[in-house]
Specification:
It is built from 4 helices and 9 strands, in the order H-E-E-E-E-H-H-E-E-E-E-H-E. The chain is an alpha+beta fold. Strands 2-3-4-8-7-6-5 form a 7-stranded antiparallel β-sheet. A two-stranded antiparallel ribbon has the order 1-9. The longest helix is centred in the first third of the chain and has 20 residues.
């Protein structure tokens, strides 16, 4: 009788061990417990061993990565008493003149809607005038007196304020050098503006390294 009870207990324990061994991993949630003893919000990720490589490996490229596109560079010489100001939104450079006019330099991809659209932004939105047509442009747009290629000068002076803009197309971008202020301030700043524009270089070639 005693041997029968022992055999029965062995069978029960063996069955229990077999049931535990048959439980799938999906039924067991593993939590990482921080030092304070509270469980984290979810189960910890399981770490799988990397699969063995059975096929030929792709050759590792030794080519150098493509260089990042260079940022546009701009150089110029400030006229006497002209000072660098604080650039605003989308303004690369802000320059104050002693006459009170302000010069802002911006650069945008493409033609930003075309010359007529740009002139109307200044003429209508900033100077409060009626919209111009393409036939009106020759009255306000002339070739630039500077040596810069692909440059045009827009002069808008209906009073009491005026805007003068050098518009330069280069390498798929358009640069704007906009001088703005009262009509008197802009007129008095024009000699300095002309000298400034003569000094402007866009993307100048860097000097050769000294051997």
């Amino acid at each position: 009788m005693t041997a029968l009870r022992v055999t029965h207990r062995v069978l029960v324990v063996t069955a229990a061990l077999a049931w535990l061994a048959g439980c799938g991993d999906s039924d067991i949630q593993v939590y990482e417990v921080p030092k304070d003893g509270s469980p984290t919000a979810g189960p910890a990720a399981e770490i799988e061993a990397p699969a063995p490589v059975t096929g030929p490996q792709a050759p590792v490229s030794t080519a150098a990565p493509a260089p990042a596109p260079s940022r546009p560079t701009l150089s110029y010489t400030l006229p006497e008493a002209w000072t660098e100001g604080t650039p605003g939104r989308m303004v690369l450079r802000a320059i104050d003149t002693p006459q009170g006019a302000k010069l802002g330099i911006t650069r945008f991809p493409g033609d930003v809607g075309g010359l007529l659209a740009n002139v109307n932004r200044w003429w209508v939105n900033q100077l409060g005038q009626s919209r111009l047509t393409a036939e009106d442009l020759p009255q306000y747009v002339k070739p630039s007196p500077t040596a810069l290629p692909h440059a045009q000068r827009v002069t808008l002076d209906p009073g009491p304020n005026a805007i003068v803009v050098e518009v330069i197309a280069k390498d798929g971008y358009t640069w704007f050098f906009k001088l703005m202020g009262s009509s008197e301030a802009v007129a008095n700043a024009m000699p300095g503006y002309d000298a400034f524009m003569q000094s402007v270089q866009l993307d100048p070639t860097p000097p050769a390294a000294t051997p």
